[in-house]
Amino acid sequence: MMLVQMRGKAFSGRLLVAIAMLSLLPACSWLGLGRGEPTPPPLPPTVGGVSPRVAWSASIGNSGVGFQPAVVGSSVYAAAADGTVARFAASSGRIDWKVSAGQVLSAGVGASESIVVVASRDGDVIALNAADGRQAWKVAAGTEVLSTPSVGLNAVLVRVGDKVMSLEAATGKTRWTWQRALPTLVLRQPSPVAVAEVTTPAGSTGLVFAGLPGGRLVALDLETGALRWETAIAQPRGTNEIERIADVLGRPWVAGREVCATAYQGRVACQDALSGAPIWSRELPAWTGIAVDPKFAFVADDRGNLHGLRHTNGEQVWRQEALSLRRLSEPLSIGGSVLVGDRDGLVHWFSRESGAVQARSNLSGGPIQAPPVAAGNLAIVQTTRGAIVALATD
Length: 394
Fold this sequence. Notes:
The protein is an all-beta fold. The protein has strands at 2-7, 16-21, 52-59, 70-72, 75-79, 84-89, 95-100, 105-111, 115-120, 124-129, 135-140, 150-152, 155-160, 163-168, 174-179, 185-187, 194-200, 203-211, 216-221, 227-232, 248-255, 258-263, 267-272, 278-283, 291-292, 296-300, 306-310, 316-320, 332-334, 337-341, 346-351, 357-362, 373-375, 378-382, 387-393. Strand 22 (258-263) and strand 23 (267-272) form a beta hairpin. It is globular and about 55 Å long. The two termini are 33 Å apart.
Protein backbone atom coordinates (compact mmCIF):
# COMPACT_ATOMS: atom_id res chain seq x y z
CA MET A 1 0.00 0.00 0.00
CA MET A 2 1.30 3.41 -0.96
CA LEU A 3 0.75 6.28 1.45
CA VAL A 4 0.74 9.96 0.67
CA GLN A 5 1.39 12.93 2.91
CA MET A 6 0.05 16.42 2.35
CA ARG A 7 1.36 19.52 4.05
CA GLY A 8 -1.45 21.56 5.64
CA LYS A 9 -0.87 25.22 4.88
CA ALA A 10 -3.57 26.57 7.19
CA PHE A 11 -1.64 25.56 10.33
CA SER A 12 1.50 26.90 11.95
CA GLY A 13 4.44 24.61 11.26
CA ARG A 14 3.72 21.48 9.27
CA LEU A 15 0.68 19.23 9.54
CA LEU A 16 1.14 15.88 7.87
CA VAL A 17 -2.04 14.08 6.98
CA ALA A 18 -1.72 10.44 5.98
CA ILE A 19 -4.01 9.32 3.19
CA ALA A 20 -4.17 5.58 2.54
CA MET A 21 -4.18 4.87 -1.17
CA LEU A 22 -5.10 1.41 -2.34
CA SER A 23 -3.68 2.10 -5.78
CA LEU A 24 -1.52 4.81 -7.24
CA LEU A 25 -1.40 4.15 -10.97
CA PRO A 26 0.16 6.57 -13.47
CA ALA A 27 -3.13 7.95 -14.73
CA CYS A 28 -4.44 8.15 -11.15
CA SER A 29 -7.94 7.38 -12.40
CA TRP A 30 -8.94 6.33 -8.90
CA LEU A 31 -7.57 6.54 -5.35
CA GLY A 32 -9.07 3.34 -4.02
CA LEU A 33 -10.80 5.14 -1.16
CA GLY A 34 -13.84 3.04 -0.27
CA ARG A 35 -13.38 0.84 -3.33
CA GLY A 36 -11.95 -2.65 -3.70
CA GLU A 37 -8.63 -3.24 -5.37
CA PRO A 38 -8.66 -4.71 -8.87
CA THR A 39 -8.19 -8.47 -8.95
CA PRO A 40 -4.81 -9.60 -10.32
CA PRO A 41 -4.85 -12.08 -13.20
CA PRO A 42 -4.16 -15.76 -12.42
CA LEU A 43 -0.54 -16.64 -11.81
CA PRO A 44 1.22 -18.53 -14.62
CA PRO A 45 2.80 -21.95 -14.17
CA THR A 46 6.44 -22.08 -13.13
CA VAL A 47 9.13 -23.45 -15.41
CA GLY A 48 11.58 -24.68 -12.76
CA GLY A 49 15.27 -24.00 -12.54
CA VAL A 50 15.33 -23.57 -8.77
CA SER A 51 13.70 -25.45 -5.88
CA PRO A 52 13.29 -22.98 -3.01
CA ARG A 53 12.74 -24.22 0.53
CA VAL A 54 12.37 -22.64 3.94
CA ALA A 55 15.73 -22.98 5.71
CA TRP A 56 14.31 -21.51 8.91
CA SER A 57 11.55 -19.22 10.11
CA ALA A 58 10.81 -17.17 13.21
CA SER A 59 8.27 -14.65 14.46
CA ILE A 60 9.03 -11.04 15.40
CA GLY A 61 5.59 -9.35 15.48
CA ASN A 62 3.45 -7.23 13.18
CA SER A 63 5.28 -4.60 11.18
CA GLY A 64 4.79 -2.31 8.19
CA VAL A 65 6.52 -0.69 5.24
CA GLY A 66 9.37 0.84 7.27
CA PHE A 67 10.51 -2.51 8.68
CA GLN A 68 13.03 -4.66 6.89
CA PRO A 69 15.62 -7.10 8.20
CA ALA A 70 19.29 -6.15 8.31
CA VAL A 71 22.14 -8.60 7.79
CA VAL A 72 25.57 -7.94 9.31
CA GLY A 73 28.13 -10.73 9.16
CA SER A 74 26.55 -13.92 10.48
CA SER A 75 23.57 -12.19 12.14
CA VAL A 76 20.11 -11.09 11.05
CA TYR A 77 18.42 -8.23 12.93
CA ALA A 78 14.69 -7.48 12.79
CA ALA A 79 12.14 -5.32 14.59
CA ALA A 80 8.36 -5.10 14.97
CA ALA A 81 5.95 -2.24 15.54
CA ASP A 82 5.31 -3.23 19.16
CA GLY A 83 8.94 -2.47 20.05
CA THR A 84 10.39 -5.97 19.75
CA VAL A 85 13.94 -6.13 18.38
CA ALA A 86 15.80 -9.42 17.89
CA ARG A 87 19.05 -10.86 16.65
CA PHE A 88 19.03 -14.21 14.83
CA ALA A 89 21.84 -16.46 13.66
CA ALA A 90 21.72 -16.15 9.88
CA SER A 91 22.55 -19.81 9.25
CA SER A 92 20.01 -21.40 11.61
CA GLY A 93 17.52 -18.78 12.84
CA ARG A 94 18.62 -19.31 16.45
CA ILE A 95 17.56 -16.33 18.58
CA ASP A 96 20.67 -14.79 20.14
CA TRP A 97 18.62 -12.15 21.97
CA LYS A 98 15.17 -10.57 21.89
CA VAL A 99 14.37 -7.32 23.73
CA SER A 100 11.77 -4.58 23.84
CA ALA A 101 12.77 -1.06 22.87
CA GLY A 102 10.08 0.15 25.27
CA GLN A 103 8.20 2.17 22.64
CA VAL A 104 6.00 1.65 19.61
CA LEU A 105 8.34 1.64 16.63
CA SER A 106 7.80 3.31 13.27
CA ALA A 107 10.91 2.04 11.46
CA GLY A 108 13.82 -0.32 11.78
CA VAL A 109 16.38 -1.76 11.65
CA GLY A 110 19.73 -0.33 10.67
CA ALA A 111 22.74 -2.21 11.98
CA SER A 112 26.51 -2.46 12.09
CA GLU A 113 28.90 -4.78 13.92
CA SER A 114 28.41 -2.73 17.11
CA ILE A 115 24.89 -1.22 17.15
CA VAL A 116 21.32 -1.85 16.02
CA VAL A 117 19.15 1.23 15.40
CA VAL A 118 15.36 1.61 15.36
CA ALA A 119 13.01 4.61 15.47
CA SER A 120 9.88 5.19 17.53
CA ARG A 121 6.50 6.68 16.73
CA ASP A 122 7.25 9.35 19.36
CA GLY A 123 10.26 10.54 17.36
CA ASP A 124 13.10 8.82 19.23
CA VAL A 125 16.06 7.17 17.54
CA ILE A 126 17.14 4.24 19.71
CA ALA A 127 20.47 2.40 19.46
CA LEU A 128 20.98 -1.04 21.02
CA ASN A 129 24.25 -2.88 21.55
CA ALA A 130 24.55 -5.53 18.85
CA ALA A 131 26.15 -7.96 21.29
CA ASP A 132 23.32 -8.18 23.84
CA GLY A 133 20.45 -5.84 22.84
CA ARG A 134 20.94 -3.43 25.75
CA GLN A 135 20.18 0.21 25.02
CA ALA A 136 23.29 2.18 24.08
CA TRP A 137 21.66 5.59 23.59
CA LYS A 138 18.42 7.33 22.69
CA VAL A 139 18.02 10.65 20.85
CA ALA A 140 14.87 12.71 20.24
CA ALA A 141 14.60 13.40 16.51
CA GLY A 142 11.71 15.82 16.93
CA THR A 143 9.11 13.99 14.86
CA GLU A 144 8.21 10.48 13.74
CA VAL A 145 10.92 8.72 11.72
CA LEU A 146 9.31 6.70 8.93
CA SER A 147 12.27 5.31 6.98
CA THR A 148 14.78 2.67 8.01
CA PRO A 149 17.85 4.20 9.70
CA SER A 150 21.17 3.69 7.93
CA VAL A 151 24.32 2.78 9.84
CA GLY A 152 27.84 2.92 8.44
CA LEU A 153 31.26 4.59 8.63
CA ASN A 154 30.73 5.39 12.34
CA ALA A 155 27.52 7.31 11.65
CA VAL A 156 23.76 6.80 11.92
CA LEU A 157 21.71 8.55 9.24
CA VAL A 158 17.97 9.11 9.60
CA ARG A 159 15.29 10.85 7.53
CA VAL A 160 13.14 13.09 9.72
CA GLY A 161 10.42 14.90 7.80
CA ASP A 162 12.25 17.31 5.50
CA LYS A 163 15.64 16.70 7.15
CA VAL A 164 18.54 14.27 7.00
CA MET A 165 20.26 13.89 10.39
CA SER A 166 23.72 12.45 11.01
CA LEU A 167 24.41 11.08 14.49
CA GLU A 168 27.62 9.70 15.97
CA ALA A 169 27.23 5.93 16.06
CA ALA A 170 28.98 5.60 19.42
CA THR A 171 27.06 8.28 21.34
CA GLY A 172 24.06 9.49 19.31
CA LYS A 173 25.39 13.05 19.33
CA THR A 174 24.13 15.10 16.40
CA ARG A 175 26.91 15.76 13.91
CA TRP A 176 24.90 17.76 11.38
CA THR A 177 21.43 18.29 9.94
CA TRP A 178 20.63 18.98 6.28
CA GLN A 179 17.21 20.30 5.36
CA ARG A 180 15.20 20.74 2.17
CA ALA A 181 11.61 22.02 1.83
CA LEU A 182 9.09 19.38 0.75
CA PRO A 183 6.56 19.64 -2.08
CA THR A 184 2.89 19.90 -1.09
CA LEU A 185 2.22 16.20 -1.68
CA VAL A 186 4.76 13.44 -1.04
CA LEU A 187 4.83 9.69 -0.47
CA ARG A 188 4.49 9.01 3.24
CA GLN A 189 7.31 6.46 3.23
CA PRO A 190 10.50 8.46 2.51
CA SER A 191 13.39 6.50 1.06
CA PRO A 192 16.21 5.50 3.42
CA VAL A 193 19.55 7.16 2.77
CA ALA A 194 22.68 5.29 1.74
CA VAL A 195 26.13 5.91 3.21
CA ALA A 196 29.27 4.76 1.41
CA GLU A 197 32.97 5.37 1.02
CA VAL A 198 33.70 6.51 -2.53
CA THR A 199 37.11 6.39 -4.17
CA THR A 200 38.55 9.73 -5.26
CA PRO A 201 41.80 10.63 -7.08
CA ALA A 202 43.23 11.58 -3.66
CA GLY A 203 42.02 8.47 -1.81
CA SER A 204 38.42 8.12 -0.61
CA THR A 205 35.63 10.16 0.93
CA GLY A 206 32.47 9.34 2.84
CA LEU A 207 29.22 10.36 1.12
CA VAL A 208 25.56 10.20 2.06
CA PHE A 209 23.08 9.69 -0.79
CA ALA A 210 19.50 10.80 -0.18
CA GLY A 211 16.56 10.49 -2.56
CA LEU A 212 14.08 13.33 -2.18
CA PRO A 213 10.50 14.16 -3.13
CA GLY A 214 10.32 15.76 -6.55
CA GLY A 215 12.70 13.19 -8.05
CA ARG A 216 15.94 14.71 -6.73
CA LEU A 217 19.01 12.76 -5.63
CA VAL A 218 21.65 14.51 -3.53
CA ALA A 219 25.11 13.57 -2.28
CA LEU A 220 26.15 15.05 1.08
CA ASP A 221 29.57 15.08 2.69
CA LEU A 222 29.54 12.53 5.50
CA GLU A 223 31.68 14.65 7.82
CA THR A 224 30.01 18.05 7.38
CA GLY A 225 26.65 17.53 5.66
CA ALA A 226 27.66 19.92 2.89
CA LEU A 227 25.93 19.38 -0.44
CA ARG A 228 28.41 17.80 -2.86
CA TRP A 229 26.06 17.48 -5.84
CA GLU A 230 22.41 17.28 -6.80
CA THR A 231 20.68 15.79 -9.83
CA ALA A 232 17.19 15.02 -11.10
CA ILE A 233 16.30 11.34 -11.35
CA ALA A 234 12.89 12.47 -12.67
CA GLN A 235 11.00 15.69 -13.32
CA PRO A 236 7.50 16.05 -11.81
CA ARG A 237 4.86 16.26 -14.51
CA GLY A 238 1.10 16.08 -14.79
CA THR A 239 -2.00 18.20 -14.36
CA ASN A 240 -2.48 17.79 -10.60
CA GLU A 241 -0.43 17.24 -7.42
CA ILE A 242 -0.95 13.46 -7.39
CA GLU A 243 0.18 13.04 -10.99
CA ARG A 244 3.21 15.20 -10.20
CA ILE A 245 4.49 12.96 -7.38
CA ALA A 246 7.98 11.87 -8.43
CA ASP A 247 9.62 10.85 -5.14
CA VAL A 248 12.79 8.76 -5.20
CA LEU A 249 11.96 5.22 -4.06
CA GLY A 250 13.94 2.89 -1.83
CA ARG A 251 17.52 3.20 -0.66
CA PRO A 252 19.89 4.35 -3.42
CA TRP A 253 22.19 1.53 -4.55
CA VAL A 254 25.89 2.39 -4.26
CA ALA A 255 29.00 0.45 -5.28
CA GLY A 256 32.40 1.73 -6.32
CA ARG A 257 31.92 5.00 -8.22
CA GLU A 258 28.28 4.35 -9.13
CA VAL A 259 24.96 5.23 -7.48
CA CYS A 260 21.59 4.17 -8.92
CA ALA A 261 18.04 5.12 -7.95
CA THR A 262 14.45 5.13 -9.18
CA ALA A 263 11.72 7.75 -9.03
CA TYR A 264 8.01 7.06 -8.71
CA GLN A 265 6.19 7.55 -12.03
CA GLY A 266 9.50 8.65 -13.52
CA ARG A 267 12.82 7.06 -14.35
CA VAL A 268 15.56 4.73 -13.27
CA ALA A 269 19.05 6.19 -13.48
CA CYS A 270 22.68 5.62 -12.54
CA GLN A 271 25.11 8.45 -11.79
CA ASP A 272 28.79 8.86 -11.06
CA ALA A 273 28.84 8.72 -7.25
CA LEU A 274 31.59 11.32 -6.89
CA SER A 275 30.41 13.96 -9.35
CA GLY A 276 26.74 13.17 -10.02
CA ALA A 277 27.41 12.99 -13.76
CA PRO A 278 24.88 10.77 -15.56
CA ILE A 279 25.93 7.27 -16.61
CA TRP A 280 22.55 6.22 -18.01
CA SER A 281 18.85 6.70 -17.42
CA ARG A 282 15.65 5.10 -18.65
CA GLU A 283 12.03 6.19 -18.57
CA LEU A 284 10.16 3.74 -16.35
CA PRO A 285 7.15 4.29 -14.03
CA ALA A 286 8.86 2.77 -10.99
CA TRP A 287 7.01 1.36 -7.97
CA THR A 288 10.06 0.11 -6.06
CA GLY A 289 13.67 0.89 -5.43
CA ILE A 290 16.33 -0.69 -7.59
CA ALA A 291 18.32 -3.93 -7.15
CA VAL A 292 21.64 -4.12 -8.98
CA ASP A 293 24.17 -6.89 -9.55
CA PRO A 294 27.29 -6.91 -11.76
CA LYS A 295 25.27 -7.76 -14.89
CA PHE A 296 21.70 -6.51 -14.40
CA ALA A 297 19.51 -3.93 -12.68
CA PHE A 298 15.98 -4.87 -11.60
CA VAL A 299 12.97 -2.72 -10.79
CA ALA A 300 9.20 -3.27 -10.55
CA ASP A 301 6.84 -0.76 -12.12
CA ASP A 302 3.47 0.53 -10.94
CA ARG A 303 1.59 -2.04 -13.04
CA GLY A 304 3.32 -4.98 -11.38
CA ASN A 305 5.74 -5.65 -14.24
CA LEU A 306 9.30 -6.65 -13.36
CA HIS A 307 12.05 -5.23 -15.56
CA GLY A 308 15.52 -6.66 -16.14
CA LEU A 309 17.90 -3.98 -17.43
CA ARG A 310 21.51 -4.20 -18.52
CA HIS A 311 23.63 -2.77 -15.72
CA THR A 312 26.12 -1.02 -17.98
CA ASN A 313 23.68 1.06 -20.07
CA GLY A 314 20.09 0.53 -18.86
CA GLU A 315 19.06 -1.34 -22.00
CA GLN A 316 15.95 -3.48 -21.42
CA VAL A 317 16.81 -7.19 -21.50
CA TRP A 318 13.39 -8.53 -20.48
CA ARG A 319 10.06 -7.56 -18.97
CA GLN A 320 7.95 -9.98 -16.95
CA GLU A 321 4.22 -9.16 -16.87
CA ALA A 322 3.05 -12.20 -14.86
CA LEU A 323 2.62 -10.28 -11.58
CA SER A 324 0.31 -7.51 -12.75
CA LEU A 325 -1.47 -5.62 -9.92
CA ARG A 326 0.28 -7.56 -7.14
CA ARG A 327 2.03 -4.59 -5.44
CA LEU A 328 5.55 -5.95 -5.58
CA SER A 329 8.37 -5.46 -3.12
CA GLU A 330 11.78 -4.20 -4.12
CA PRO A 331 13.60 -7.03 -5.94
CA LEU A 332 16.59 -9.00 -4.66
CA SER A 333 19.20 -10.52 -6.96
CA ILE A 334 20.65 -13.71 -5.48
CA GLY A 335 22.39 -16.59 -7.22
CA GLY A 336 20.85 -17.11 -10.64
CA SER A 337 17.52 -15.64 -9.62
CA VAL A 338 15.78 -12.36 -8.85
CA LEU A 339 13.11 -12.42 -6.12
CA VAL A 340 10.14 -10.21 -5.33
CA GLY A 341 7.45 -10.46 -2.65
CA ASP A 342 3.83 -9.46 -3.21
CA ARG A 343 0.63 -8.37 -1.47
CA ASP A 344 -0.49 -11.98 -0.87
CA GLY A 345 2.65 -13.13 0.95
CA LEU A 346 4.12 -14.91 -2.08
CA VAL A 347 7.77 -14.79 -3.06
CA HIS A 348 8.31 -15.13 -6.79
CA TRP A 349 11.56 -16.42 -8.28
CA PHE A 350 12.60 -15.37 -11.78
CA SER A 351 15.58 -16.15 -13.95
CA ARG A 352 18.06 -13.26 -13.88
CA GLU A 353 18.94 -13.91 -17.51
CA SER A 354 15.49 -14.27 -19.09
CA GLY A 355 12.83 -13.29 -16.54
CA ALA A 356 11.21 -16.72 -16.77
CA VAL A 357 9.08 -17.69 -13.72
CA GLN A 358 11.20 -20.29 -11.94
CA ALA A 359 9.33 -20.94 -8.69
CA ARG A 360 6.96 -19.53 -6.09
CA SER A 361 7.10 -19.64 -2.27
CA ASN A 362 3.95 -19.09 -0.18
CA LEU A 363 4.97 -17.65 3.19
CA SER A 364 1.38 -17.19 4.48
CA GLY A 365 2.48 -14.27 6.61
CA GLY A 366 0.68 -11.31 5.16
CA PRO A 367 1.88 -8.88 2.49
CA ILE A 368 5.60 -8.58 1.81
CA GLN A 369 6.38 -4.87 1.63
CA ALA A 370 9.98 -4.79 2.84
CA PRO A 371 12.80 -5.61 0.42
CA PRO A 372 14.18 -9.14 0.87
CA VAL A 373 17.86 -9.13 1.85
CA ALA A 374 20.66 -11.62 1.24
CA ALA A 375 22.55 -13.50 3.95
CA GLY A 376 25.09 -15.52 2.00
CA ASN A 377 23.04 -17.86 -0.18
CA LEU A 378 19.87 -17.27 1.86
CA ALA A 379 17.14 -14.75 1.07
CA ILE A 380 15.72 -13.24 4.29
CA VAL A 381 12.12 -12.04 4.03
CA GLN A 382 10.04 -10.15 6.61
CA THR A 383 6.25 -10.11 6.23
CA THR A 384 3.88 -7.51 7.64
CA ARG A 385 2.42 -10.09 10.06
CA GLY A 386 5.78 -10.66 11.66
CA ALA A 387 7.27 -13.72 10.01
CA ILE A 388 11.02 -13.77 9.39
CA VAL A 389 11.73 -16.43 6.77
CA ALA A 390 15.07 -17.60 5.36
CA LEU A 391 14.69 -19.12 1.88
CA ALA A 392 17.31 -21.35 0.29
CA THR A 393 17.60 -23.23 -2.98
CA ASP A 394 19.02 -26.71 -3.40
